[in-house]
Write a structure and sequence with these properties.
heterodimer, A: mainly beta, 4-stranded antiparallel β-sheet, 0% helix, globular, B: mainly beta, 6-stranded mixed β-sheet, 5-stranded antiparallel β-sheet
Chain lengths: 113, 114
Amino acid sequence: DGGITQSPKYLFRKEGQNVTLSCEQNLNHDAMYWYRQDPGQGLRLIYYSQIVNDFQKGDIAEGYSVSREKKESFPLTVTSAQKNPTAFYLCASSIAGQGTVLTFGSGTRLTVV
Amino acid sequence: QQQVKQSPQSLIVQKGGISIINCAYENTAFDYFPWYQQFPGKGPALLIAIRPDVSEKKEGRFTISFNKSAKQFSLHIMDSQPGDSATYFCAASSKAGGGNKLTFGTGTQLKVEL
């Protein structure tokens, strides 16, 4: 079955540590996205990539970094510069030019203690 | 700056009743308005969507009503069922700027009680 796999489902890290969230898709989608979900704030775009080896900042990119070395993979690194990293992180993908029809993964809940 | 405002934040409806969730937008360049449904611990999934050239779109028990002049759109769930209990997000997008990025509302947590 085609879909998006995010791992791990739950992640705990100590404050000051960088952490990388995995996102893999087998939908053959060109575009991939990272969103952050916080209670009462909806989904906010962190980074997106329309094609391999290219990505753009979203609305809340500060303290995050990404890479897109392969079409099927779009890992997100939460750095120690992110002031409030505890959140639910969602990866999504879409057909190129149809970024409005997103397929989401099941998310990773990151807790920084 | 919130470009899509969604209300209410939470909603409790009796089984068989009508659930109504409202959204308002400011950017007149928005030209696509989807609704996403999210169950606990899962990612959102596209439920239904509308473009501004029509005032209403219906898919089963789910209907989007769109008012272009008021810059508002709403989701109506007819004959609401306990299985509809989820968080619903409205969203909007524009092709301007070369991208098709979605701007989401803040979400509505719907609970349908027996």
